[in-house]
Amino acid sequence: MNDSSTQQAMRDMRRVLGRPRTFGGLGLAAVLVTIVQPFGFHVPGPIGLTLMYWLLIIAVTFPLGFVISAACAALFRHRWSAALAAACAMGIAVTVLAYALNIMFLGWGIWELERWRVLTGSAAPVAALVTILIHMIQAPVATASSPPQSQKAPVPPALLNRLPSDMRGAIQHLSAEDHYTRVTTSQGSCLVLLRFSDALQEVAPTPGLQVHRSHWVSFDAIDKAERRGDGARLILAGGASVPVSRSHMPRLRAKGIV
Fold this sequence. Notes:
Blueprint: H1 3-17, H2 20-36, H3 47-75, H4 79-106, H5 113-138, E1 171-177, E2 180-185, E3 188-192, H6 196-202, E4 208-212, E5 215-218, E6 222-228, E7 231-236, E8 241-244, H7 249-254
Antiparallel strand pairs: 1-2, 1-5, 2-3, 4-5, 6-7, 7-8
């Protein structure tokens, strides 16, 4: 599985979930389905119980969609193969989730085949269709002015030219050590006689961010973030821990990393 694709999807999910309007939209959707009660699900009891039922379904399926889409995007190279796989997986996941909640809320039995059939024929197609529509909306639009992707040759960072040939890989982390800069790549790490400020210039166009006066990290190398008071620490894919100073926190929040 492609770690970069998965990490990017997780960052996208954190960024979307960090927006207040996202929760407003999900809450509104829960209220609407509470009123409409689709698929013939009528939760007995007060309306608050029905609202809780739909809030649970939405709260689980929304982030689940990001996880499934990320996994399918990493497993399938072709966009529409990934979309169809994600649609099938979401249809199955939503059906199983809805049936489990119906066992808790509606008292359904585990092996009631007729209810499994009805639920599979109603909830699964809707979940699959919504997944396909989301992939269609997110698909890039080709324009006449855009050259084919094959014509765009990636430009390697100039910093790689300063490294031994066996250390040249994807740059993950830069750290200042006196008059040197330690460069960590996917192939290992080594010290380069170069000021940290100059290294920051030469690391472009690798997508990343300076998170401390002595540290720069690649977005693709970030595994997770841990809050520490006014600052934070980033745990990289290789296990390294990088401090984040308070002054750099707003830029990380803007990227949805913390």
